[in-house]
Every structure is written in C-alpha cells, then in structure tokens.
Amino acid sequence: MRVTSNLPEPEQAPATRKRGGRPSAEHAGEVDRRILDAATTLFLRAGFDATSCDQVVAMAGAGKATLYARYANKDALFSAVVHRALERAAPPAPDLPPAMAVRDRLHAVGLHLLKQALTEESVALLRVSLTTAPRLPELSRLVDQTGRDGGIACVVDALAGAAPSADQTAAATAIAQRFIDLVVVPQQMRALVGDDREQLDDAAPRRVDEAIDLLARGGLLDAFERVAQAGTSRGQV
User: Fold this and answer.
1) CA-CA distance, 199 to 109, in Å (whole number)?
2) How confident is the model at residue 15 (pLDDT cuts 50, 70, 90)?
3) Alpha-carbon distance 106 to 215, whole Å?
4) E-assigned strands of 157-224?
C-alpha cells in the first residue's frame, strides 16, 4: 500500500568521509542512524512492498554491503525500524495533580493518548504493520500490543495512583481496557481509513467524555472516586 505523507526526510549523508581502516564507533553509529532514518521514512511513506533495500541505501548514502552487514534482509531491517519506532513512541504518563477528580484525570489521559495515537508517524506505523501481518505476524502483534499496553498503563496510573493494591490494579486494568477500546481504537481506525486529522482532533474531547459517562453510569468509577475523595479529605485535615 502506498501512502502519501509529510514525514520528514532523513538527514543527507556527509559529502566526504575517511577512507581506509576500521570506521570509528561514532562513524558506525552515524551510519546505523542514517540507514534506520531512511528505512523509516520509506517504509512509513511507501509501505513495505514498495520499499527496497536499494532505495534505503541510496537515501542513506550507504553501500549495500554496509546495510547487509547489519541486517540480513528487508524483513530484518523492517523489524529494526519497528522496534526503534516503538521505543521512541512510548507515551509517558501525563503529570496529573494528586487532588484532581477521577473524571478529570481520565479526561486528561484520554486526550493525551489520542494525541499520541493520531500522530502521522503512529498511524503510518500501524498501517504498515497491518499490511505486513500475513508476512510478519509477530511484529504486527507487537505494534498493536505495545501501544495498547502503554495506554492501559497510563489509564491505570490515572485511576489507581502510584501505590495501588493488587485489587485496585486489577480493577483499574479492567476499566483501562474498556476505556482504550472506547476512546483510542475507534479514532485510530478512522485515521487509518483516511479521516481528516483536524476533524478527529475536534471530536476527541466528546469521545473521551462519552466513554467516561458510560463507565460512570455502570458504576465502574465509584470505588476510585471514593478513594480520591478520601485522599483529598485527609490532605485538608
């Protein structure tokens, strides 16, 4: 699948380089970065099938022997691109005031997760991983599970706080899974099929609030609201 995008071009290779002898660790690291930057741009922009190793080395300003000394084939290169992208994309949990109400905490976390999930890079990574699922199913599952686990962890932190009990963690995890399914997954699917990003951003607060209302009507937030209220009361004593 070919996808047009505004993904940034990788930095061009230096015009000159030292000849002879073993490359320094700094130079080797620079070559690694250029190869992965070029591969990332091409895979996310054009898709797996439309990207060749020849295109990658041409964009990176490297030789094919250099690429194959690091990656056995295109599958291995794509795997390296995905793992690096996942490491860079992991969203840190937002810093929320301890006294913030549970609903407000969920609202803030929901918007935070949607902002990360709907970036062009995140959507492109999910798209290309889905198109390669028949060929590289474990890698496709990794992309999905890593994003989902990171989102669930953020919601659990927002609900249960820094030192929850085992029961609180279990209850918060169950709620977080539903919250992700209600908030993040539908918006990601709309982005994957090409819905306008600005419209998705505009719809984000409403989608988050509707999910919170649904969880609240089911009584799923009651226990965490009581804990939050008790903590606020103790802090005021």
Assistant:
1) 20
2) very low
3) 11
4) none
| Angstrom distances, CA of residue 129 to CA of 55, 69, 93, 121, 183 | 20, 24, 25, 12, 21
Q: Find the length of the chain.
A: 237
Q: What are the tokens at 58?
A: 């041409």
Do 21 and 70 contact (CB within 8 A), yes or no?
Answer: no
Give residue-wise pLDDT tens across range 43-72.
Answer: 999 999 999 999 999 999 999 999 999 999
The tens digit of pLDDT for each residue in 21-31 reads 455 555 668 99
CA separation, residue 190 to residues 80, 132, 151, 163 (Å): 27, 20, 18, 36
Q: Is the pLDDT of residue 18 over 50?
A: no
CA distance 193 to 190: 5
Q: How many Cβ atoms sit within 10 Å of the Cβ of residue 205?
A: 13
Q: What pLDDT is attached to residue 26?
A: 59
What Rg value do the Cα atoms of the chain yield, rounded?
22
pTM of full prediction above 0.85: no
- Are 31 and 66 a contacting pair, CB within 8 Å? yes
- Write down the residue that tokens 């929901």 correspond to: 110
CA distance 1 to 43: 10
